Structure formats: structure tokens, C-alpha cells
Amino acid sequence: MRHFFQTAARPSYLRAAAMVMFAICLMLPVAGIAQSDASRSVEGKVYGPQSAPLNSAVVYLQDSKTNNIKSFISTQDGSYRFGQLSTNIDYQLWAEFKGKKSDKKTISSFNSKKQLVIDLHIKD
């Protein structure tokens, strides 16, 4: 039995089809990488009036396209993180703690950074 890629007995159109399929298989992982480049993340810390990290502050992220809001409760050291954000959408980011709010920060779709670090400060 002959190997599939032995070309002596195969017509040229079968060789061409096999080469096209092989090329497509080689490109598939590249397409997966390109799709993952279409996302970014934002992280940072929430600080209180004396620049102390705030545990259990609620951090909000609002999608400007759909107005959907995601939330994250800051960790012991005041950290938060949102991942898998679209690079084609603007976002508003702010924090709340015991009825007080930080200023809103805008994450622009024109910002090309894939990983953003934004600290939020809640004042008296």
C-alpha cells in the first residue's frame, strides 16, 4: 500500500487538494492567536482617604456599548481585576465603599494597551 503523500500515482488535482488542506491546518493555530489578541484586561487597587488599600470595596466596570455592568469586590490588599475585555468598546470604571465613590475613569477603545493598570481613590 502506498503512502498518501506519495505522488507518483496520484493525479495533480489530488496533490493540490492535499497541499491546500495541509496549509489550512498550519494556519488554524495562528487564527486562534489572532482572536485572543482582541481582548485586554484592567487591574489595580482601590485606596481610601489616607492612601490605605480598601478591602471589600466594590469596583464597577460599565460597557459603553450595552451599558452592562460587571462588579468585583476588592481583595484584602485592595486589588481588583477584570479580564477578557473587548478592545473595540469603551468602558467606565469606578469604585464604591461605604456610600462613597471614586472618580470615574474611562478606558478608551483607542488605547492599544492589552494590560491596563488603573488605581482608584475614594476620598472623604
Count of DSSP strands? 9
- One letter per element, helices H and strands E, the order comes to HEEEEEEEEE
**Biggest beta-sheet profile:** 5 strands, antiparallel
Alpha carbon gap, first and last residue: 82 Å
Protein described:
The protein has 124 residues and is an alpha+beta fold. It has 2 domains: 1-37; 40-121, Carboxypeptidase-like, regulatory domain (Immunoglobulin-like), CATH 2.60.40. Helix content is 20%, strand content 36%. The chain contains 1 helix and 9 strands. The chain has one helix at residues 12-36, and strands at residues 39-47, 58-63, 69-73, 79-86, 91-97, 100-101, 105-107, 115-117, 120-121. The strands form 2 sheets. Strands 2, 3, 5, 6 and 7 form a 5-stranded antiparallel β-sheet that branches. Strands 1, 4, 8 and 9 form a 4-stranded mixed β-sheet that branches. Strand 5 (91-97) and strand 6 (100-101) form a beta hairpin. The model is unreliable at 25-36 (pLDDT under 50).
